[in-house]
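Re: the 88-residue chain
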Amino acid sequence: MSDDRDETSIPFNQDELDEAKRYSLVIEWSLRDDAFLVSVPELPGLRTHGATHTEAVAMGEDAIAVWLDGLRATGQVVPAPRFAAVPA
């Protein structure tokens, strides 16, 4: 787990978090929600948010890891990452 994550983060092993980091994160500021909203194009329906950009990234990576674990646990196909990450 990354040092900048707090104790409320879901504990995943490094391989699971590394896999999650291969997926695209679309992060948009929402004035209405006063938060950074996160979606993942490869995983339709996955949404999360963070108060800061850094928190949004961490929440997005955790959400991806949970989503992928759920797909595997239910025998569903895990979609491959489609987009290359662009540094912020």
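Helices lie at 14-20, 53-73.
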